[in-house]
Design goal:
This protein has about 210 residues and is mainly beta. It is built from four helices and twelve strands, in the order E-H-E-E-E-E-H-E-E-H-E-E-H-E-E-E. The protein has one domain: 2,3-Dihydroxybiphenyl 1,2-Dioxygenase, domain 1.
Length: about 210
């Protein structure tokens, strides 16, 4: 394989940041840490460490930010319904090579910032990733420190992530590297759905 690929973080999408955080905190019994604003996307987030190199993100449109000229990531421009686990994000050491293997429509490279952090991410033109958002988003942190290193560790750990889709086999065929990820399983199901099993101080909890 010409590039590395590892699970980086999970994204819970919500209509408002407050609504998303309330959902996650009720399920996991965890208080999320402040994240920040993404000026390039008009969004903001809060974060929870799931270990030394994995974290959970709650993300929503920032009502105080101007609307960007391009589509927002994570399909937020058309998002409706209750908060839910919407996307999973994989980091790579070579974004160009990863995009060559990834399914068509996985996005174009963009430099993004949050506070003093600067990184590259593949952002789909229309806001939605292939296979109904079941295909992972791709990120390259470059010289920027990984966010998990800045977060307090309250003992929450990702046990496993199950990615369901009616055409799961086609997704794995289109992006074979994801079949080698640890703690992640891409499986056939009646609809696209992400289910994370997370170990908490009170036992395992399911976030979906």
């Amino acid at each position: 394989m010409r590039f590395t690929l590892e699970l980086d973080h999970l994204a819970v999408v919500a209509r408002t940041l407050e609504e998303g955080c309330s959902y996650v905190e009720a399920v996991l019994g965890a208080e999320l840490s402040s994240g920040g604003k993404h000026d390039d996307m008009g969004t903001h987030n809060k974060l929870l460490s799931l270990g030394p190199d994995v974290y959970l993100e709650v993300i929503a449109i920032d009502p105080s930010a101007p609307k960007p000229k391009h589509r927002r990531w994570f399909n937020l421009d058309t998002y409706v319904g209750a908060p839910r686990m919407m996307n999973w994000i994989c980091r790579t050491d070579d974004l160009d090579a990863a995009l060559e293997e990834a399914p068509p429509g996985s996005g174009r490279e963009m430099w993004l910032t949050r506070g003093d952090m600067r990184w590259q991410m593949a952002v789909p033109e229309f806001g939605k990733l292939p296979f109904d958002d079941a295909s992972p988003a791709l990120i390259h942190w470059g010289n920027s420190a990984h966010p998990s290193g800045r977060l307090p560790d309250h003992g929450f750990r990702l046990v496993r992530l199950d990615v369901f889709h009616p055409r799961a086999g086609e997704l794995v065929d289109a992006f074979p590297s994801i079949n080698r990820l640890q703690t992640t399983s891409v499986r056939e199901g009646p609809e696209k759905r992400l289910i994370a099993t997370i170990a908490t101080p009170e036992g395992n909890r399911i976030l979906a």
